[in-house]
Amino acid sequence: MNPTQLLLRSLLDIFERFGFMFGEMPDESPVPPPSDVPYLNASITFIGELGAGSIVLAAPVSLCDELAANVLGLDVSDVVPAMRDDAIKEILNVTCGEFLESSYGKSPVFDLTVPQMKQTTSEELAAQADSGLLTAFTMEDNTLFACVTVDR
Amino acid sequence: MVINVLIVDDSAIVRTVLRRTLSIAGFELGEVLEASNGREALALLAKTKVDIVFTDINMPEMNGVEMVEEMEQSGYLEAFPVVVISTERSETRVESLKKMGVKAYIKKPFTPEKVKMIVDLLLRDKVN
């Protein structure tokens, strides 16, 4: 598997185990870009003896609300922005650990940064996906975007 | 047995989930203290006694490894059993933390069964 496939496999696994949400690996056909959908774009970087790089995950705000509600056992209407931010950052944090283990094994030490986040738009993400910078995949009928870069 | 715990994680959602997991696992919780980084945790430990400290590694200000190092130097590590709960999975790092005196390591995402098993072992050690 290449790094992107490993990342997507890790994401699907962690969404399922941490968030009780189910997704699918992308197929050959391009995912239609959503329009007018606000997204949260989370990123994390890692550095270690065998490599360094970063992972980006972008998910619709509404899916982040559902994720936080699932994790906390709340109704979606009770989710506040801090909860959704925390939820998507934690998914990325745990995914990064799983990705590094599946890529490099259990021995090497990596230092991870605290995940950073910003709001973005579906149009901006779709443009990045069109140019190959992001890979789209599906989670609970939502389109998410992700990418991993390995510097060395 | 009522247990008092300190949960150290920069994610409020993880702190809430761990607190709930401990309840689901059947532990009677007394005081549940929370800190969002190692520095806050050390300040709490200076004035409060707890039975177990659960800590993440990857945190701002002072991370979990730095906190454990400070606890080792100040003698807190002998007084307070520390369980690391983290996404970082390197066996090299886990071994290094255990050599320092960390009692156990749990990978995220954690399950109630795993948390119960570890806490049961720590409480049994404490009683003996």
In short:
The complex is a heterodimer of chains A (152) and B (128). Chain A is of the alpha+beta class. Chain A has four helices and seven strands; from the N terminus they run H-E-E-E-H-H-E-E-H-E-E.
Helix content of chain B: 40-55%
Q: What's the total count of β strands of chain A?
A: 7
How far is it from the N-terminal to the C-terminal residue of chain A, by CA? 17 Å
Spans of chain B of 5+ residues with little confidence (pLDDT < 50)?
none
Verbal overview:
- The complex is a heterodimer of chains A (152) and B (128).
- Chain A is an alpha+beta fold and 152 residues long.
- Helix content of chain A is 41%, strand content 30%.
- Chain A has 4 helices and 7 strands.
- In chain A, strands 1, 2, 3, 4, 5, 6 and 7 form a 7-stranded antiparallel β-sheet that branches.
- In chain A, helix 1 packs across helix 3 and helix 2 crosses helix 3.
- The longest helix of chain A is centred in the middle third of the chain and has 24 residues.
- The mean pLDDT of chain A is 91.
- By secondary structure, chain B is an alpha/beta fold.
- Helix content of chain B is 48%, strand content 22%.
- In chain B, strands 2-1-3-4-5 form a 5-stranded parallel β-sheet.
- The mean pLDDT of chain B is 93.
- Classes of the chains: A alpha+beta (152), B alpha/beta (128).
- Chains A and B meet through helix 1, helix 2 and helix 3 of A and helix 1 and helix 5 of B.
Topology:
The complex is a heterodimer of chains A (152) and B (128).
Chain A lengths: L2 H17 L3 E2 L13 E11 L2 E10 H12 L8 H24 L5 E3 L3 E6 H9 L4 E5 L2 E9 L2
Antiparallel strand pairs in A: 1-6, 2-3, 2-4, 2-5, 3-7, 6-7
Chain B lengths: L1 E7 L3 H13 L3 E8 L2 H8 L6 E4 L8 H11 L1 H4 L2 E5 L4 H10 L3 E4 L4 H16 L1
Parallel strand pairs in B: 1-2, 1-3, 3-4, 4-5
Helix pairs in contact in B: 2-3
Question: Keywords for this structure?
Answer:
heterodimer, A: 152 residues, alpha+beta, 7 strands, globular, B: 128 residues, alpha/beta, five-stranded parallel β-sheet, 5 strands, 22% strand
